[in-house]
Amino acid sequence: MCLAKNHTQYSFGFTSKRHLSHLDAKLNDAVKQKLTNFDRFQRNFEKLTVDKYSELVTNETVRESIQEIIDIYEREKYLTALVPETITVSQMQTLLKETYTQRLHYFKYLYKKEMYKRKRNIRKQVASELVDEIRNGKPQIGIHYDPETNSPVYGLWKNSLFINLHSSYSRQFDVKLYNAVLFGQPLVFDFSFESQMNSKCLTSMCKQIAYAIGVNRTYDDPFSLWFCNLKQDSETDTRLLKTVGNLYPKFGVNKSFINVHNCSYLDSFQKDKLVYLTPDSDEELHAFDSDAVYIIGAYVDQTFGCERRATIEKAKSEGLRTAKLPLDHYVHINAGKALNLDQVLSILYIIKHTNCWVEAFQSLPKSRITTKINT
Ligand SMILES: C[S@@+](CC[C@H](N)C(=O)[O-])C[C@H]1O[C@@H](n2cnc3c(N)ncnc32)[C@H](O)[C@@H]1O
User: Is the CB of 327 within 6 Å of ligand 1?
Assistant: First the structure.
């Protein structure tokens, strides 16, 4: 590649996800290596005696039971070594209440717990060694050439085709988003379904919202996003902060140009402009209306095939117009007609700018579409 010869390049640290996954793989390999050399028979086993558990000994029967447990422990230690290095008083207390088989299971459980702890410590130690190694190999300005082939070399701390993305990079989106807040078409996400989602669905919903925010930022004419019925400090609020990170507008601090409200869209928009998008509507959205305020339910169902009709019911109870995307006319869709939140946003954006449903539905992942009917 002569590209590097014509341009001065800089080697930066964590410039891409690839570098990070490379480091992660290196870390995993090092941990694996240390663990394969580990021999569970060669641990620092404590020599157990009944005296260690004297506070538990209330009578002769208990003393005998403790001795019995220690005997089983000693035997397992030499046969399988699937026992912990020692047994604490409280663990002995538990063991006293258990049967022979349960005791064996408990030893194994304690062994696994110990191994887990060991692995975590090894990982921590290896990671800090790796960080030291990286810190010592400081980035150097200039092009790095392979001494043998004399061609540029690529990789960590060498030449990089990626520039380091500073936080200022995100500012290039600011102007568009600023315009969107002032003049853009509002697009509402309705967050009133938290109580109807289990933890898995909530996680998935937050991820989809993160994608939606991300993709909207890349558009030339982004939507003005409104998050309605989102309660401050609710589970959704906390999770969104975790999932979306810096791009999530905390209540009161709005760097991402998203309107976050704990009140309803009914308080912010004229009711006759609102159109609730829902896959269960009888009406189809034939053309995009630039005056309408479309609402997307921030709701993810548990499983395909037993979807709840949550959004249609809510829209009907509020007396709102509803519409579904005209999927049936253009595509055969796999696994249910309910699309992801970010997919719906992308379709709306494309239909708004092209007025072509075929193009809009082409934005769906190929795995979700079987055949295109009308082109
Ligand atoms: C995963 S869907 C939720 C489906 C759920 N059964 C419901 O009651 O809406 C999430 C949201 O995306 C929008 N959506 C998904 N697929 C749609 C479609 N085919 N037509 C219209 N809106 C759709 C709706 O706003 C919906 O609330």
Answer: yes
